[in-house]
Amino acid sequence: MAHTVRPPVPDTRADGGALTRFTARHGSTLERAREVIRTREHWSPYAEDPEDPQAYGRGARAAGEASFRRLLGRPFDLGQPGRDGTVGPAPEAGGERSPYGGPLEVSYPHCDPDVLLPAMRAALPLWRDAGPEARAAVCAEILHRINARSSEFAHAAVHTSGHNFLMAFHAGAVHAQDRGLEAVACALAEQTRLPAASLWRKPQGDGRAVTLAKTFTAVPRGISLVIANSVFPTWNSYPALFASLATGNPVLVKPHPAAVLPLALTVRIAREVLTEAGFPADLVCLAAEHPGEGLARTLATRPEVRLVDYAGTTAFGRWLEDNARQARVFTSGSAVNSLLVESTGDYRDMLANLAFSVSLYSGQLCTSPQNLLIPRDGISTDEGHRTYEEIVADLGTALDALLADDTGAAAVLGALLGPPVLERLERVMAGEAGKVAVPSRAVRDPAHPEAVIRTPAVVALDANRAEDRAVLLAEWLGPVVFAVAVDSVSDAVALVSRTTRECGALSVGLYSTSPEVEAAMEAACAEAGVMLSANLMGDWYISQSAVYSDLHGTGMNPSGNAVYCDAAFVSARFHTVGVRRYGGAI
Amino acid sequence: MAHTVRPPVPDTRADGGALTRFTARHGSTLERAREVIRTREHWSPYAEDPEDPQAYGRGARAAGEASFRRLLGRPFDLGQPGRDGTVGPAPEAGGERSPYGGPLEVSYPHCDPDVLLPAMRAALPLWRDAGPEARAAVCAEILHRINARSSEFAHAAVHTSGHNFLMAFHAGAVHAQDRGLEAVACALAEQTRLPAASLWRKPQGDGRAVTLAKTFTAVPRGISLVIANSVFPTWNSYPALFASLATGNPVLVKPHPAAVLPLALTVRIAREVLTEAGFPADLVCLAAEHPGEGLARTLATRPEVRLVDYAGTTAFGRWLEDNARQARVFTSGSAVNSLLVESTGDYRDMLANLAFSVSLYSGQLCTSPQNLLIPRDGISTDEGHRTYEEIVADLGTALDALLADDTGAAAVLGALLGPPVLERLERVMAGEAGKVAVPSRAVRDPAHPEAVIRTPAVVALDANRAEDRAVLLAEWLGPVVFAVAVDSVSDAVALVSRTTRECGALSVGLYSTSPEVEAAMEAACAEAGVMLSANLMGDWYISQSAVYSDLHGTGMNPSGNAVYCDAAFVSARFHTVGVRRYGGAI
Questions:
Q1: Side-chain-side CA neighbours of residue B425 (13 Å)
Q2: Which end of chain B has the lower number of beta carbons within 10 A, N or C?
Q3: How far is it, in rounded angstroms, from Cα A575 to Cα B527?
């Protein structure tokens, strides 16, 4: 492979051998990551069990909570240049408030972009000249240290995004780390496609040959701005953060005002590791903002910013594409995910799988299914024919069974992200979206009595009614599921296509025992550009995305142009500059 | 490698086994092309000698000329749908005129986009479903047939772009074919990074494992519009044409009105091969335009068009980026290339190399050096110190020696592209750009008395004079070279950086025996984003680009964002859609 013949990294930095240690420590992990992104098999270096003593030590969950508690009620310093103010700690000054109750009372530095951006730009050459392998090793060390503190990150995710703890440990910690490492592995692969050096020899007619000694150097684009969301502040920003950093770009992280802490922790760790490795800490900075400041707009249109990654509303994604013209803009926006229930050979498992899929994190995942399309004449199952009405009722029963116990329900549902989600659910419960077939109920988490937790409402819609179509062709983020009666499979497939093309989708589901129906859905999904999950049962759900294996997004529909993590997501972040030196005619 | 485990291409087309034959015929060529784009070594399957009897048969040059002559004075039919008019044959009706004299009197079909684009879109699914390997084989067969007719293509290039025959045979035929095959190899590599199918197995706590059978399918973006130029109609469009086609996109070629024939031939051959292989011919179409129609603007902003590639002026490239917002736009625009003469150990060879570089095709290559930066105090050489004035005079002597004989000079210079180039040269000769140090002279090609052929003018400029800087910071396409006096190496390096950043550059040159100067230029070129060629001697020139080895462009400066052929150039042309099928908990 080309990357094995690269010259050693020139090491002129005073780092006490840290870079060499990081390179040795993470070499085999990076090699394995590069292998699995080719094979797409299951793998992760980060243990999924928060109580795994080998991975995290004994009592890691409690220790992580204690570490998290120590962060609260005090300033979070980062040592960044250009500090000109403070964000928080009071919520009215930009401080965060836990969806499980109470303000975090953490304050963050606010920095002047006119100081911060030049400092970041000045840090670029040393990082660029270090080369892809050194950058990958530093990134892997950052992720390694984040991983060691996964429980602390999980508690931060609980109290900013409203995840339940296990989901926070997964989506807010280890799976986000996986997405980061995946991006590092992709970046290493993409940057080493060309040899660092090669000898070119062209025979001439006279028996001699022209020779040229060539070098190919990966050169970053410039400062990378990562605008994070509040739902998955780490999972939705680590791909961009690490893809940009690993390809040589300084990264400025602009957190969502409601979820600063997980990214402040991330930036602090990155700055520590960079410093230890002899690189400028300002290669990674945080841009916390004052309430109403609109800092994302200001930063995204700065000439120094050459990459913008954004996860959030489709509308602001479009604004960025229209206005941040000096940058390459990657977006992850809204999604309306559809799922067709056509037939099944395992009715009970299907219902259980569906109930869990629509309940997990209260349907607030970007991959949660919203529109369940069901033939109005019913479906055939291993338990005989089931009518549309029976399926809806049976789904209600499955939801009741899954969410019967408040403590168990809270662990699946997490908390509602904020007042807009609750207001939307209340409008649905008032019948605004259609007839409520399965009502939502409030769940009380004994450990967090202030948390707003609700079970999903199932609303019966009819695909043939114009007003119902208007309802289902919009995103209803939160615990709202539409059971949409359709005339036929072909109508359903057409509706899936239309929804994906018009509203964007990240995930489409299907339950069917018919190869023809599966083929039709597969063709429609290829045409509209969305991943299809067929007949998922047991402990794997449509909303889940397996890092190193599943691509997240396709870049083909309005849900966004970012794909975690394909070659285009990474190769747009750097360029290659060649040098040719004449080597004589020999 | 992932690509070896793909399932066989499903072959439901009635093609008489043609696709199987193409796959067998080109398998090893494609494999070798994939290897050399990794190693960047010298290679080509297309012979550079037009008289090579093994490659092209005896008398190929004359036979090619006869074939070319048979095309003249008659309609060029393509069998495309939606024909609503005729372009040409008269020049005032859009017919081409040879830079070597006389109209070609060929007419082309004009087609209604409202018929053509839907027909192309309808052709997409079968081509998409054929898969990367089948598409690569078809593309390789198209290039193979184009290669067999290289002499005919070269004559077409002579009489549209004004190349001399050998240059036309290279840049207009075999090297363009190389760029096409390079793009096909890159496309095959990029599309097969993920396995077509893989089994994912995740162990569960209970000793069982969740399994998912996954497929990953490359899906094209949509119709690809390739807007060609007149200087290198094939060389500048084959990368895009073949990258788009190989990744599954139908391709609409919009030729420059002055150079339709080489692309009409290309489209005809592509349509023949596609038809033979059982695919719709309308996957490749030509969009000839009426004079003043502005068809590029109309087509580029159509919603069906999802990729636009353009080679031409930077201004129209910007218009496309601003207006074709529904598409991914790749541009190749203007360039102002600089070369610093700082010192040399081989003064005679350097002068000979420089003289040829500025003379080849009358400086009309996008990689031709325009600004020769020379220290005003002179340089050290193996022949002792040389003053600025001596270097300019010696360059004039080297040009005289190279271009002494009219027939030989015509073979190097080719013809001027058109009246604007001649007018610009005449303004320069009138002293408008500065003091003429080496005058241009008219050359008479005995075989083409009507051709407008001129030797290069060398103009003395001073980097310290504001009016001279304004002159050198603009593109003077044609036989115009500026010998720019600079105070110091650091001034020269700064001027190279500024020129590249402000005007765009595709190539920077250096003659120096000093490692420090070389390092400074290398750093400046990495920062500004332009390829550096150091101390080229003998038969390799700064304006040359070795396909499969040199990247053409960096995407970092205003000369354009297209790079022939990096991963980003190809991976943006398709997306990947995954399907996950539950395989049970086993």
A1: 27
A2: C
A3: 11
Three-class secondary structure assignment of B165-233: HHHHHHHHHHHHHHHHHHHHHHHHHHHCCCCCEEEEEEECCCCCEEEEEEEEEEEECCEEEEECCCCCC
* Distance, CA of A289 to CA of B343 (rounded, Å): 54
CB A215 within 8 A of CB A248: no
For residue B339, give the nearest of B242, B482, B463 by alpha carbon.
B482
B17 in any annotated domain: no
- Measured between beta carbons, the chain B residues lying within 8 angstroms of A540 are 202, 210, 212, 582
Q: B532-534 and A574-585 as β-strands: parallel, antiparallel, unpaired?
A: parallel
Out of B2, B193, B549, whose CB is closest to A567? B193
Whether residue A351 sits in one domain with residue A292: no
Are residue B316 and residue B367 in the same domain, yes or no? no
Q: What pLDDT, on the 0 to 100 scale, is given for residue B497?
A: 98
The span from the CA of B239 to the CA of B229, in Å, is 13
Residue A371 has pLDDT above 60, yes or no: yes
Residues 133-192 of B with CB under 8 A from A: 190
Domain containing residue B474: 337-534
pLDDT tens digits along A120-131: 999 999 999 999
Q: What is the predicted pLDDT for the residue at B2?
A: 33
Angle of helix B238-246 versus helix B175-191 axis, rounded to 10:
30
Asked if A525 and B554 come within 8 Å (Cβ–Cβ), the reply is no
* CB distance B132 to B191 below 8 Å: yes
- A291 and A344, same domain (yes or no): no
A206 touching B, CB under 8 A?
no
CATH of the domain at B82: 3.40.605.10
A376 shares a domain with A236: no
CA distance linking residue A548 with residue B81, whole number of Å = 45
Q: Residues A42, B201: contact at Cβ < 8 Å? A: yes
Residue A478 lies in a domain: yes
Residue B579, phi then psi, degrees to nearest 5: -125, 135
pLDDT at A9 over 60: no
Give how many domains chain A has, as a whole number: 2
User: Which two tokens mark B448?
Assistant: 């083409």
Count CB-CB contacts under 10 A for residue B79.
13
**Tokens 């087309």, located at residue:** B13
B569, part of any domain = no
pLDDT in tens, A317-334: 999 999 999 999 999 988
* Two structure tokens written together for A551: 């691509």
Instruction: Please indicate, yes or no, whether residues A341 and A329 belong to a single structural domain of this protein.
Output: no
Q: Do residues B509 and B463 both lie within one domain?
A: yes
With an 8 Å Cβ cutoff, is A522 touching chain B? yes
From the list B244, B228, B362, the residue with the least C-alpha distance to B296 is B228
Write down the pTM of the prediction: 0.95
> How many CA atoms does the CB half-sphere of B93 hold within 13 Å?
14
Comparing C-alpha atoms, which of A479, A388, A480, A393 is closest to residue A434?
A: A480
Residue of B nearest to A529 (CA): B577
Choose from B211, B576, B586 for mutation: most chain A CBs within 10 A: B576
- C-beta pairs of A471-475 under 8 Å, 24+ apart in sequence: A471/A433, A471/A434, A472/A336, A472/A370, A472/A371, A472/A499, A473/A336, A473/A498, A473/A499, A473/A502, A473/A503, A474/A336, A474/A503, A475/A334, A475/A335, A475/A336, A475/A370, A475/A503
DSSP A349-417: HHHHHHHHHHHGGGG-STT-EEEEEEETT-EEETTEEE-HHHHHHHHHHHHHHHT-SHHHHHHHH---S
Are A320 and A425 part of one and the same domain?
A: no
Report in angstroms the alpha-carbon separations of B32 from B66, B146, B174, B186, B193.
Answer: 34, 19, 17, 12, 17
Report the relative pairing of strands A108-111 and A83-87 from DSSP bridges.
antiparallel
Q: Could you give the ipTM of this predicted complex?
A: 0.94
The two tokens of residue B472 are 């050198």
